[in-house]
Amino acid sequence: MDKAQLTEFIRKADDKLVITEGKQFPEVTVPVPELHRVAAILRDDKNALFDFLYCLTGVDYGQDLGVIYHLRSTVHGHAIVLKTRLSDRVNPTIDSVSDLWKTADLHEREVFDLFGIKFNNHPDLRRLFLDKTWGFPLRKDYIDDVNIVTK
User: Fold this and answer.
1) Domain span at 71
2) Which tens digit of pLDDT belongs to each residue from 18-56?
3) In the chain, what's the furthest Cα-to-Cα distance?
4) CATH code of 50's domain
5) Which helix (H) or strand (E) covers residue 104, if one does?
6) Cα 107 to the chain's mean position, in Å?
7) Is pLDDT of 142 > 70?
């Protein structure tokens, strides 16, 4: 599928999703409660077959936190970006996609460790790099008095 066909496919899958044309790939903004359902459709539908999650990262937008997913179909050769936003900075929680793509396992642990975003149903959600005395150093509001890291 080319970008236009891919965009049309996603609109048919869920007409409430916001789709924009990114610099390289279509970007789909998915509400947090719908993420796992939409991701499963993109992985399993024979016309999409997004079988490879090649990047998952956290983002601090200031007021909101987010998670961005880069997906590729090794069968069809197309790619897409899924974006989510979490407005709860105190207890940011989203469903894990590690049951859909095994590569999400360590990516989600990294995002949890550095941004504090919790992933529901993750098989082993624990810090990957830092111990429990650290906060979440990739958040914009992070202050480290010991190492003097500031905004």
Assistant:
1) 3-120
2) 999 888 889 999 999 999 999 999 999 999 999 999 999
3) 52
4) 3.30.460.80
5) helix 104-115
6) 9
7) yes
